[in-house]
Amino acid sequence: MKILMVNKFHYLKGGSEKYYFELAKILREKGHEIAFFSMQNEKNIKTDCKEYFVDSIDLNSNNKTKALEVIYSKQNKKKMQEALDEFKPDIVHINNFQRQLSSSIIEAIKEKNIPIVFTAHDVQAICPAITMLDSDKNICEKCKKGKYINCIKKKCIKDSTLKSVLGAIEGYYYRYKKIYTKKIDYIITPSEFYKQKLVEDGIPKEKIEAIHNFVELEEYDIETQDEGYALYFGRLSKEKGILNLIEAFSKTKMGILYIAGEGPEKENIEKFIKEKDLSERIKLLGFLKSNEMKKCISKSKFVVVPSIWYENCPYSVMETLAIGKPVLGADIGGIPELVKNNENGLIYKYDNIDELSEKMQQFFENTDLTNKMGQNAKENAKKLYSKEIYYDKIIKIYQKLLENAKK
After folding, report:
1. How far apart are CA 282 and CA 230, in angstroms?
2. Which CATH superfamily is domain 217-384 in?
3. DSSP class of 184
4. The pTM is what?
5. What sign results for the dihedral spanned by CA atoms 151, 153, 159, 165?
6. Backbone φ/ψ region at 132: left (φ over 0), alpha (ψ -120 to 50), beta
7. Taking 90 as the threshold, does the pLDDT of residue 57 lie above it?
8. Region of residue 289 (phi > 0: left; psi between -120 and 50: alpha; otherwise: beta)
9. Is the pLDDT of residue 204 over 60?
10. Minimum mean pLDDT among 10-19, 131-140, 329-338: which range?
11. What CATH superfamily classification does 2-214+386-406 receive?
């Protein structure tokens, strides 16, 4: 089978890109031919597959003509047509494409009657700001059912009226053209939670399947030990709940908290540590490379995922479970689908700082509990998140779509 993998970034920017490259790797291992379609960037990763790139689009540009290309790009449609003519894929598997690649590539694919699979790594189909957070970083569902005027009113996209207007126009255009409801043949969501949100917005449930992401389990089969610290790793931003975490930790009577990552809240975190005299108990590690991060997880007592927004299927959780460490996770988005309370971790109400503090204290005080949950975590990951399981599910989707296309 020939599969064209599409994603607007061709380097490891986030979870979507990790999935894009890892899925392509699995498909190649199984004998399928892969090509990539993405955007030019100096960070792009070179593969030995066919690669097709469109010109880079800067969303921060003030060029209004260029800005309209985020909605529909004739140039990108032409590039996609050329890629389809040359590579002749059986399936096109799209990941993040909105804005930089635009809906025009969907039109080009449909003109060739090639089945389209779309993995929804976010909820941009519902929310022009992508995250379902308003400008104050509070959960917001006001744009559901196409009520995008709310995005403009609150300037939800980077606190900019122009960007919010463009995002709203894009949303209206996609809805008018039935991009998600008709043009895309099948949608994969990495969580049941995201599937439900898309169904609530009007996408037929029979064309959406929730399949949790996968991890290369062998890469996380490393020796573990317990050096007694709690660990947070990821972006240091408000929606990730990092400020709630440090406040909750300050209320615990024992333990050390390691924080790995960079982001806009770093200065506020440093200020809090200084004001509360917590420099001996909270350690900021900065950005860690992949192998350093794995080692840091393997030596932790537990990992905290304190998000206050609709997480999808966080790799941070899956990687932690695969290594064999328990997770203390917020009961929001897709997190509770991965973290089973009292089995491979603990769940708390996402906006309850006192409960988060209590659960952290519980883990710090009970090594037998963290050890047992860590064992369960590793066993669960092996059963649920292997690449073989994922491949079997994805190939069935491809085959069904190809059969339908022949009818």
Report:
1. 10
2. Glycogen Phosphorylase B; (3.40.50.2000)
3. S
4. 0.93
5. positive
6. left
7. no
8. beta
9. yes
10. 131-140
11. Glycogen Phosphorylase B; (3.40.50.2000)
